[in-house]
C-alpha cells in the first residue's frame, strides 16, 4: 500500500510575531482559524515538514541540518515578551540530506547550515498548525538573485518528498512592500497583483501555471507589491513541487490595509 501524497502549501505568514500580541492577533482571525484547522485536512500526520522561507537567502539553496534549531527573532519594535518565544521542534539532518540528494540529482548545487534556526515566517504558522512542536522541521533557503526558473526547478526536484510523508510549505506573502503597508492605495495594489497570482496558481495547465509565475514581473502592480521578491519566491518553489496539481485559495485575509492570500496545491 503506497503512502498518501501530501498537498503543498504557500502560506502568507503575516507581520512579525502577531499571534503573541493582543489586539494584533484579532486582526488575523481568518488566518489563525485556517492554520489551526489545516492539519485536519492532510491525508495523514506528516513525518516531517520542509519550509521554504522568505526570510533566508544564501548564495546557493541551503538546507538547515541542526538537530535542535534555535529561534531567530528577525523583527524589531515589538513587545519584549515576543523576543522570548520558543518553538522547540526538532530538526531533521536526515531530511536535510534527502533534500540535498534530490537537488543534486537534478543538477542543482546546494549547501547545508548546522546553525540556521526558525525565523518568524517559520515558527509563526507552525506554532498554530502544530502547537506541540513535535514534528521535525527543516528549512530551505532561497538563492540570491531570485531567478524564478531556478526556484521553480527546485520545487520540481523536491516533488518526491510529497510521497514520503513530508509536508512542503512555502512561507512568504502575496504582498510585501515595507513602505507600502497601511498606505493609501496599498489595498488596491495588493488585490491587483494578487489577482494575477491567483489566476496563475489556479490555471489547470501546469505549463501555463509555471510560465505565468515565472513571468510575475510582467503582472500589473508587480513591483509595487514586491520591490524585493524574497517573500514571493517561496510560492514559485511550492508551485514547482505541486507538479500537475493546480492550486486553490486556502484563505484570504486583510491586514495592515493589504490583502494576503495563501494557497493549497493538491
Could you give a short description of this structure?
This protein is an alpha/beta fold and 266 residues long.
Can you characterise this structure?
There is one protein chain. By secondary structure, the protein is of the alpha/beta class. The chain has one domain (8-265): LigB-like (Protocatechuate 4,5-dioxygenase, Chain B), CATH 3.40.830. The chain has eight helices and eight strands; from the N terminus they run βαββαβαβαβααααββ. The protein has helices at residues 29-37, 93-105, 120-129, 148-158, 186-201, 206-214, 222-225, 233-242; strands spanning 8-12, 48-58, 61-64, 110-113, 137-143, 166-172, 247-255, 258-265. The chain has a six-stranded mixed β-sheet, sandwiched between helices. A two-stranded parallel ribbon has the order 3-4. It starts with 7 loop residues before the first strand and ends with a strand.
Distinctive features:
two-stranded parallel sheet; alpha/beta; six-stranded mixed beta sheet; 266 residues; 8 strands; Protocatechuate 4,5-dioxygenase, Chain B; 8 helices
CATH architecture: 3-Layer(aba) Sandwich
Strand content: 15-25%
CATH uppermost class: Alpha Beta
Low-confidence stretches: none
Q: How is the biggest beta sheet arranged?
A: 6 strands, mixed
What is the overall pLDDT average? 97
Give the CA-CA distance, first to last residue.
Answer: 20 Å
Return the domain count: 1
Reading side by side through the largest sheet, how are the strands ordered?
A: 5-2-6-1-8-7
Broad structural category: alpha/beta
Shape: globular
Q: Whole-number radius of gyration? A: 17 Å
Instruction: Please tally the β strands and state the result.
Output: 8
Total helical elements: 8
Amino acid at each position: 500500500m503506497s503512502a498518501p501524497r501530501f498537498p503543498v502549501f504557500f502560506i502568507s505568514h503575516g507581520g512579525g510575531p502577531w499571534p503573541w500580541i493582543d489586539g494584533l492577533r484579532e486582526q488575523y482571525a481568518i488566518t489563525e482559524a485556517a492554520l489551526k484547522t489545516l492539519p485536519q485536512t492532510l491525508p495523514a500526520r506528516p513525518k516531517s515538514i520542509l519550509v521554504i522561507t522568505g526570510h533566508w537567502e544564501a548564495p546557493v539553496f541551503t538546507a538547515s541540518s541542526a538537530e535542535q534549531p534555535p529561534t531567530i527573532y528577525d523583527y524589531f519594535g515589538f513587545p519584549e515578551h515576543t523576543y522570548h518565544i520558543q518553538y522547540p521542534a526538532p530538526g531533521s539532518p536526515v531530511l536535510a540530506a534527502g533534500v540535498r540528494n534530490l537537488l543534486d540529482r537534478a543538477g542543482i548545487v546546494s549547501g547545508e547550515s548546522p546553525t540556521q534556526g526558525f525565523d518568524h515566517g517559520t515558527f509563526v504558522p507552525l506554532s498554530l498548525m502544530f502547537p506541540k512542536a513535535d514534528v521535525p522541521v527543516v528549512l530551505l533557503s532561497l538563492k540570491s538573485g531570485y531567478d524564478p526558473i531556478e526556484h521553480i526547478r527546485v520545487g520540481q526536484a523536491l516533488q518526491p518528498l510529497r510521497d514520503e510523508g513530508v509536508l512542503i510549505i512555502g512561507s512568504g506573502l502575496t504582498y510585501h512592500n515595507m513602505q507600502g503597508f497601511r498606505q493609501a492605495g496599498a489595498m488596491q495594489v495588493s488585490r491587483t497583483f494578487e489577482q494575477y497570482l491567483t489566476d496563475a496558481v489556479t490555471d489547470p495547465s501546469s505549463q501555463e501555471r509555471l510560465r505565468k509565475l515565472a513571468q510575475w514581473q510582467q503582472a500589473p502592480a508587480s513591483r509595487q507589491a514586491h520591490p524585493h521578491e524574497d517573500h514571493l519566491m517561496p510560492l514559485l518553489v511550492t508551485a514547482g513541487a505541486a507538479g500537475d496539481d493546480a492550486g486553490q485559495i486556502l484563505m484570504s485575509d486583510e491586514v495592515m490595509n493589504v490583502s494576503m492570500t495563501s494557497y493549497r496545491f493538491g
